[in-house]
Amino acid sequence: MTVVSRADLLAILPELLVMTGGCLLLVLDPLTPPHRKEWLTYLSLATLGAAFVADYWFIGAFTGAPRPAFSGLYVLDAYGTFWKLLLIGISALTVLLAKAHLKLEEIDLPEFYALILLSLSGMMVMVSGADLLVIYLGLELMSLCLYVMAGFKRYELRPLEAAAKYFILGSFSSGILLYGISLLFGRTGSTTLAGIREGIAGLPAGDPILMVAMSLLVVGFGFKVAAVPFHMWTPDVYEGSPTSVTAYMAVASKAASFAAFVRVFLGALGGLKEDWQLLLVAISVATMILGNVVAIVQTNIKRMLAYSSIAHAGYALIGLAVADAFGTASVMLYLAIYAFMNLGAFTVVTMLRRGGLEGDEIDDYTGLAKRNKWAALVMLLFMISLAGIPPTGGFIAKFYIFMAAVGADMTSLAVLAVIFAAVSAYFYLRVVMVMYMRDPGEAVGTPGYGVRVVASPATIAVLLVASAAVLILGIFPDPLVKAAQSAILPLK
Amino acid sequence: MTDIILNTTPLPHLLTLLILLPLAGVAMMAFVKEETAVKHVAFWTAALEFILSLPLYLWFDPATHRMQFGEVVQWISIPPVRYAVGIDGISLWLVLLTTLLMPICVVCSWTAITSRVREFMITLLVMETTLVGVFCSLNFVLFYVFWEAMLIPMYLLIGVWGGPHRIYAAIKFFLYTLAGSLLLLVSIIVLYFQGGHTFDILVLSRAHYGETLQAWLFWAFFIAFAVKVPMFPFHTWLPDAHVEAPTAGSVILASILLKMGAYGFLRFSLPMLPDAVGRFKPVILALSVIAILYGAYMALAQSDFKKLIAYSSVSHMGFVTLGIFVLNTQGVEGALLQMLNHGITTGGLFLCVGLIYERTHSRILADNGGLSKPMPRYATCLVILALSSLGLPGTNSFIGEFLVLVGSFLYSKAIAVVAALGVILAAVYLLWMVQRVAFGATTEKTARVTDLNWCEMSTLAPLIVLVFWIGVFPNPFLKPMHASIAHVFTTMARGEQAHSTLDLPRPPQTPSHPPAPTPPRRSLFPAHPPAPSLPRQALGPLDASLPVGALNTVPSVLP
To answer: Cβ of B190 and A406 within 8 Å?
Structure first.
C-alpha cells in the first residue's frame, strides 16, 4: 500500500490546478447570474495562467533529471513540461477564441470552458504518463470532452452528426489501443513504459504477439493524430464541429497525441524500432500524399484545413519515424509551430460571417483583401506558413523535419516530403489568390457577396499572438529550438 | 574566417543595412496616409538604398577574391546556422543592379499603378530586401530563406496588379519555382551532412563530395536554378509571367530574378560540384544553345511586344549559361557581364513596353506603328536599347556576348558558331520589331500619343548611360570580377590537386588535338591584371586543349 506523498502531489500541481479550475467552473456556473457569466471565462483564463506559472517556474522540470511520481506511473520531465506549456498556451488561445466565437454562434455556455479545462487536464496526464494505462486514462478524458464539444451546437444536425461519428469511431480506436495495451501486458507482464521496455528486451526478435500489439498501438495513436488510413473521421468532424472546437481538436489534441505517441514508441517500444520504423514511414508517406492531394479539390475551407492537418500529421510522423533525438526535437518543434499557424487560420475562419452563418466556403474569401485588409494579411501569413515558405515558422518546422530525415539517411523520404510540400502550396495559395486577386461579389449569388468580417478584441488578441509567433519563430527560432533540444526524451 | 573580410568601413553593418532598409521603408508607410506620400516614401527609400550601395563599389577591393563587407552572427544554434553576409566580385554587380533598378521601378509605377498603391509599394520594397539578401548571403540556409521568401511578393505582384490572365500566370510562376527550389532545400541539407556539418557556403565549397553524390546534387541544383534562369525545357512560365506582370514586375523579373538562377550556378554548382559540372556540362551547353536559338525563333514569331522581349530573354540567358559552363575565364566573365547587360538592356526594353502600353493600351506590335513621328524621344531610346540588345559594337551587350563567344570558341568551335547564329537572329527579330514599332506609318492608336516626359525619360536615362558606358569602357565593370572568378576556378581545381597529391594512377592526358602554338599575348583590355596562373594539371580536365596563358588572352584567330 503506497501512500501518496507530497512530492507526488507537487509533481502534478499544474494538472491539479487545471482540474480544480474545471470543476470549479461547473460548480460556479449555476450560482452565477447571467450577466456575470463573463467572469467564468476570466476564471478559466486565470486557471490556465496559474497552471502555466506552476509548470514553468514552480516545478522547474525543465532542468534536472526526470522525476518519477506515483510509484513510476507518472513522470515529471522536461519533455512532458514542454508539451504541457504548449498545451496550456493553446488552451488559453482557444478560450479567447471561443469567447468571441461562441457568442456569434449563440452557444456561449460556461460549460464549454469547463470542458476545455478538463480535456486539457486529460492531455496533460497523457503527455506525462509513464504507464500505458495512465496514458490511456488521459487520452479518454481528453476524447470524452472533445466528443461533447464537437456536438456543442446541439440544435443543429451537422454538429450532432460530427459528434456521433467522432464518438463511435473514437471509442472504436480507443478499444483497439486498449487491446494493444493488454497484449503488451500479456507478453511483458507490465504496463509501465519502463517495464515494457525491459520485457521486450528479454523476448526474441520478431515475436508475433508483440508485432500485433505494436500494430494495434499504431492504429490507436494513428487515429488520434489523423494519419492515413485512420483519418476517415477527420474531414466530417472538422467540418461539422463549431470552428473553435475544430481548432482545438486540430491543434491541441493532435499535439498531445503526438507527445504520447513519441513517448510510448521511443520509451516503451524502442526495442522494436526496426519493426515500427518502416510501418511509420509507410503511414507517413500515405498521409502526406492523401492529405495534400485531396485538399486540392476541397471547396470548404474547414475541410481543406482538415486535409491539411492530415498532411501535417504526415510530416510530423517523419520526425517520429527517424526515431532519434533530433527527430523527437523536430516533432516537438513542428507541432509547436503548427499550433500557432493552424489556430490562427481557424481564428480567421470564425471571423467571416455570411448572413447568420459562418462563411466557411473558400468562395467566401473572394476579395477579402478589399473588405478587410488586416484579416487578409494575417490569413496570407498563416497560409504561407502552412505551405512552409520562409520567413515564417512553417518553414523552420519543415526544415527541421527534413534535417531529421536526411540525418537518418532517409533522403528519399525527405524528397517525397518536399514534392508534396510543393503540391500543398497550390491549395494554400488558392486561398491567397481568391483573397487578393479577385474582387468581392456585388450581386446576390456571386462569390464573396454579403460576407462581413466580425472582429472582437478577443479574436484580435488571438490573431496578434498567433501571427507574431509565426513570424518570430520564422525569423528567430533559436529559443524554441533550444527549448525543444533540451526537452528531448532521454533515449536509452 | 579567412574567407570573409569583416566590414571595417565607416558605414557599420553596411550590408545588413542594405537588406533591412527597404523593410524600414515598409514600416514607415504605416505612418503616411496619402497615396502620393506612400509613393514618395517608396521612392526615397529605394533611392537612399541605391546611394548607400554605391560605397560597395567605391570601397570594393578588386585584388582579392575574399568576401568583403562581411558580417557574421550566430543565428540558430542547433544545427549551427549563421547570419553571414558579404559580397565578392560576382555578387557586387548583382547587388548594385538591384539597388539601381528599384527606384526606377518605383518611378515607372508612379502613374501606371492606380489600385492598392500602398500594397504595391510594400511588395516592391519587400522584394528588394529578399533580392539583396539572396546576393549577399554566405550561409546556405540564409540564402534559401531569401530565395524562397522572394516568391510571395512576386506572386502577389503578378497576381494582383497583372493583366487579364494574371492568376494563371502567377500560379504557374509560383509552382514552377517552388517545386524547383524545394529540391534545393533537400540538397542543402544533404550538403550539410556530407560537407562537414556546416551551412557555410565557403566551407562547403572547399569540401570534397563523392562522384555519385555530386551527380545527384548537380541535378537537384540544376532544376532549382534552371527554372529560375530559365533554361530551355523549364522556360514556359516566363512568357506568361512577363506578359501578365505589371511593368515593374517585368523589369524585376527579367533584370534581377533571372540572374538568381545564373548566380546559383556560378556560386554553388561550379565551386561545390566540379566533377559533376565537368561530367554534365555538355548537357547544359546543349540546352543553352537550344535556348539561344529556340528563344530567338520564338521571339521572331511573336506579335506581342512584351512576349517578344520575354523570349529574347530566354535567348540571352542562354548566352549566360553557355558562358558559365564553357568553364574558362572569358566565358564566365562574359556571362557575368552579360547578366548585368541583360538586366540593363532588357529592363530598359520592358520599361519601353510599359511606356507605350500606358499610352495605347495595346502591346500588339501591329497596333503600335510609326512611333518615331509622335514620339521621337521614345523612338530614340527604343532604338538604342534594341541595338544594345542585339549586341551592336559600342554597346554593353557586345562586350558580354563577345566574351562569351570567345569563351565558347575556346571550348568548341562548333558551339561558338551555332551560338553566334543566335546573335544574328537577335538582330533579325529586334530590328524587325524596331521597324514595326518605331518606323512606318502611324496607326490610329499611335497618331495622337504624347512623347516621353522628363519623369519617364529619367527612368530610361541611367540605363542608356550604362549601355554606352559598359560598351565603350568596360574595364571598371570587369575589374572587380577577375579575382573572384579566378578563385572559382581555383576552387574547382581542388579535387584535381587532391588527386595528384594522392598520386593516383591517372590516364595520360591526351588532348583531342595538339595545342595551338601559343598565340601572341594580346590582352583584350589593357588594364587586365594577370590572372593567377593555374597549374597545368589543375586545368586539365576542364579544358584540355587550352594552353596556359590563353585564359586571359584572346587567341589571334579572333579579330
So the answer is: yes
Contact B175 A422 (CB under 8 A): yes
Chain segment A54-64, per-residue pLDDT in tens: 888 766 666 66
Q: Give residues 126 to 185 of B whose Cβ lies within 8 Å of A.
A: 141, 144-146, 148-149, 151-152, 155-156, 159-160, 166-167, 170-171, 174-175, 178-179, 182-183, 185
Task: State the amino acid at position B381 in one-letter form.
Answer: C
| B20, B158, B182, B209, best to mutate vs chain A, most A CBs in 10 Å | B182
Residue-level pLDDT at B503: 41
| Nearest partner of B157 among B116, B123, B106, judged by Cα | B123
Mind telling me how many Å the CA of B66 is from chain A's nearest CA?
A: 28
Side-by-side strand order, sheet with A357-358: A357-358, A352-354, A451-453
CB contact under 8 A, B77 and A482: yes
Q: Specify whether A246 is located in the same domain as A129.
A: yes
- Closest by Cβ to A411, choosing from B141, B144, B190: B190
| Band (A2; pLDDT cuts 50, 70, 90) | low
On whether both A255 and A291 belong to a single domain, the answer is: no
Residues A253 and A277 in one domain: no
Query: What ipTM is given for this predicted complex?
Result: 0.92
Note the Cα B98 to chain centre separation in Å: 10
B418-434 per-residue burial string, b: 16 or more CB within 10 A, e: under 16 = bbeebbebbbebbeebb
Residue A427 lies in a domain: yes
Supply the range of the domain harboring residue A382: 273-492
How many domains does chain A fold into?
A: 2
Do A237 and A385 share a domain, yes or no? no
Any domain includes A191? no
Q: Which residue of B has its CA nearest to A396?
A: B145
Task: Using pLDDT thresholds of 50, 70 and 90, give the confidence band for residue B251.
Answer: very high
Q: Which sign does the torsion angle of CA B454, B459, B464, B465 carry?
A: positive
Does B23 contact chain A (CB < 8 Å)?
A: no
Evaluate whether residue A218 is within a structural domain: no
Q: Is residue A385 part of a domain?
A: yes
Name, in order, each residue with C-beta under 8 angstroms of B198's C-beta and a sequence gap of 6 or more. Answer: B80, B192, B204
Query: For residue range B323-348, what is the model confidence (pLDDT) as tens digits?
Result: 999 998 889 999 999 999 999 999 99
Q: What whole-number distance in Å separates Cα of residue B239 and Cα of residue A107?
A: 53
